[in-house]
Fold:
Amino acid sequence: MKKGLWVILSICAIAIVYYLFVRPFEFEVTFKANTLPGDLIETIRIWDRSLSEAEVLHVDSLSGLDQKITRDGRAYIFRWRFTLRDDTTTNVRIQITEPGRELSNKILIPFTTQPIETDARDIATEFYDILKEHLKITSVKVIGVAELKRKFCACTTLETEQVAKAEGMMRDFPLLTTFVSAYDLEPDGFPIVRVKEWGHNEGQLTFDFCFPIVRKESLPENEYIEYKEVGGEYALKAEYHGNYITSDRAWYELLHYARKNGYKVSGLPIEHFHHNPNLGVREHEWQADVYLPVERKTED
Structure:
């Protein structure tokens, strides 16, 4: 009897020590998301920019993200952890800690509601509502393999945050449209983005923003614009519908499809944009064809 009591007391003591001094968070929120981890990370980054006091501290590939959020003078660390459940669903765990109040929160939470609990639920719900709206107005359909046509283009090169890609495009759109119009160049297709460097963890991009044109023997020069050939690759193709700010959702869908189906990725994403956002088309109708270059498989 005494031995059994000691075992129970020992287990309780170990559990208390773990809870108070080892467990790296005070509160946890979990939910399921009908998208991939990469899309979740970029949605968090976009949402983070809208918060008055927030900062993404670290991104760990596609498995997690650490974020600092201050709410009413209380600073929290949100540790987002993502586990892919299937091709369309991710399990999300948010482990929240309040630096400087870890021990007091752990002692008080079992007996009384603490601000960390209320704030964590409110912040997580705020993000979840934004995520649902994002998923409601965007969609991705992977088509399969495609031969990407080669296009001769007038291009600018930009370096931006990944979430600011569309802002960079809009900044250079007047420059390219004016250039093509002023020199009577003949358009030859939809505007294109060709990613040259992609730092997912850092959230940084270098890309060409290009207008396809018909090649002429004599072409005007411009210090901000270069002529380049874009395309010609064997690639996986997806159709994206939604705001072009989040067209990179299709990048993660294509990467997942490539890994699942045994394709070796050989290049970075290329996007063809069908609509001009300034012409009044509703954003859920905007279309982009998104390509991910891959090596050809023998059965293809």
